[in-house]
Amino acid sequence: MEYLVNAKEMKACDEQTSKEYGMPPVVLMERAAEAVAAEVIKRTKKEASILVLCGGGNNGGDGYAAARLLFLQGYDVSLYALAAPAKGSLCESEQKICRNYGIKELSALPEKEPDVVMDAVFGTGLSRDITGPIAETLRVVNAWACQRIAVDIPSGVSADHGRILGIAFQADLTVTFAYRKLGQILFPGAACCGELLCADVGITDHGFLNRMPRVCSLTTEDLSLLPERKADSHKGDFGKVLVIAGSPSMCGAAAFAAEAAYRMGAGLVQIFTAEENKTALQTLVPEALLSTYKNEKHDEKTLIEAIHWADVVLIGPGLSTSSTAEKILKTTLKSVSVPLVIDADGINLLAKEPEILKGPHTDVILTPHIGEMSRLTGDSPMYIKEERMRIAEDFANEYNVILTLKDSRTVTAVPYGRLYLNRSGNHGMATGGSGDMLSGMIAGLLAVGAGAEHAAALAVFMHGLAGDLAAKEKGAASMLARDLLSMLPEIWKNAREQTP
User: Fold this and answer.
1) Hey, where are the domains in the chain?
2) What angle (nearest 5°) sits at the alpha carbon of residue 468, between those of residues 471 and 154?
3) What's the pLDDT at 498?
4) Are β-strands 402-405 and 411-413 bridged in parallel, bridged antiparallel, or unpaired?
5) Exposure pattern of 236-245 as b/e (b: 16+ CB <10 Å)?
6) Could you tell me the pLDDT band of residue 249, with boundaries at 50, 70 and 90?
7) Residue 383 burial (CB count, 10 A)
8) Cα 194 from Cα 410, distance rounded (Å)
9) 269 and 491 Cβ atoms separated by less than 8 Å
């Protein structure tokens, strides 16, 4: 698991590393500069010309220090100061060292484009729009054909939200320090970072003084959290999932969700669906048990029996928002005493009366996309995209549910707990059936014994890993949801190989 930090958290950790543990700030700056210089050396030839744009703060100091290290390695380095360092600052000290070595200082951008331009103008503390001459400078260098490298974060990207503050440096590579920043993961800031590397500069978790960041991101090492399977087990040991999904002649979503639950290790999956879907689902998911209702009539007894049979219930994919579907949802909420996953039309139905979530219940996980979240809260989709972290957290706390808010960067909020920001996946996953598959994966992990928090966060991460494997094999633009399903066995295999 990796912590993702905002500007305030990073500043506190940095300062406390120096204050509490005696790590000199100049040492941290030197290590940051070494990390940047090492990447430049790795990627460029010795004859390369390098222009370093420097601001007047610590980010500028990192830039001056990196310029000096590259100069001493024999590179053709030029400096262009876009702001004067404060007197007595580390930035001023590093600028003086560069002057002592005779490194070229420019008073304007060169007429000839360099091979590399390095952005060390604004760091993570920027909170206002970039305007005036600095904005114009960034506009010009963004149009150059050279390699662009950002020091810590591209100037103009908000470290907190990923918003573009007027204009942003468009990096091919960003070398950040100690921790990745939220704004480097969230769009549109993520698109300005290019390749994102995180360098160890001597700042560790100790610097948080036990006040840890609230946002984290899973890595492949966290696949070790997947429940173990004993050699002498049987299907009854791996849980029973009830998938309440599909409306008359709409069975694809139910099939995706049911197969995904099986692929995550569930022992038995039963689908409760409209009678019209029976033949198709017996063909699409022959492993699944089936119970049905006829002629749009809600058979409450059959449904309650199925709910009592299950160890986990998933409701919503392809269910429709008909009056029958609404009755099915209300019966489910009234009758369920096991973990419940609500997706798709289940969420659309809840939007009419979200207060029914507030009654006593067991673990509930909601998996809305941005549009469904908009219906739940009444906020515009654009506002939700911009404030996804806060909105997900507030909703999870208010309704005491785990909320997985799906988007290019999916957020999973645990009530009064962690926020998980997912970094796996790609645009090829924006295809019909992908979300149904995710809800089935969550249900499957719940069935095999994962806690609700881990089931939601791990399923989102593995869902993205499946998308990345599928994109590599098929190409992102041509991916289908079933391509993701076919990748899950490979992810399980890799996870088991990595587990000690």
Assistant:
1) 2-213, 220-498
2) 110
3) 61
4) antiparallel
5) eebbbbbbbb
6) confident
7) 13
8) 20
9) no
**Amino acid, single-letter form, for residue 413:** A
Query: Average pLDDT in the 477-496 region?
Result: 93
CATH number for 2-213 (one of 3.40.50.12160, 1.25.40.20, 3.40.50.10260, 1.10.10.60): it is 3.40.50.10260
Rg (CA), the chain: 26
Residues 6+ apart with CB under 8 A from 116: 40, 44, 48, 49, 50, 51, 146, 147, 148, 149
Three-state secondary structure readout of the chain: CEEEECHHHHHHHHHHHHHHHCCCHHHHHHHHHHHHHHHHHHHCCCCCEEEEEECCCHHHHHHHHHHHHHHHCCCEEEEEECCCCCCCCHHHHHHHHHHHHCCEEECCCCCCCCCEEEEECCCCCCCCCCCHHHHHHHHHHHCCCCEEEEECCCCCECCCCCCECCCCCCCCEEEEECCEEHHHHCCCHHHHHCEEEEECCCCCHHHHCCCCCCEEECCHHHHHHCCCCCCCCCHHHHCEEEEECCECCECHHHHHHHHHHHHCCCCEEEEEEEHHHHHHHHHHCCCCEEEEECCCCCCHHHHHHHHHHCCEEEECCCCCCCHHHHHHHHHHHHHCCCCEEECCHHHHHHCCCHHHHHCCCCCEEECCEHHHHHHHHCCCHHHHHHCHHHHHHHHHHHHCCEEEEECCCCEEECCCCCEEECCCCCHHHCCCCHHHHHHHHHHHHHHCCCCHHHHHHHHHHHHHHHHHHHHHHHCHHHCCHHHHHHHHHHHHHHHHHHCC
What's the mean pLDDT when you consider all of the chain? 96
Q: How many C-beta atoms surround the C-beta of residue 312 within 10 A?
A: 27
CA nearest neighbour of 437 among 289, 263, 271: 263
Residue type, 96: K
Residue 380 pLDDT greater than 60, yes or no:
yes
Contact 166, 131 (CB under 8 A): yes
The reply to whether CATH 3.40.1190.20 applies to domain 220-498 is yes
Tokens encoding 420: 């998980």
| 438-457 residue pLDDT tens | 999 999 999 999 999 999 99
Residue pair 162/130 in contact by the 8 Å Cβ criterion: no
Closest CA to 175 of 156, 199, 158: 199
- Judge whether residue 499 has pLDDT over 60: no
Residue 490: CB atoms within 10 Å? 13
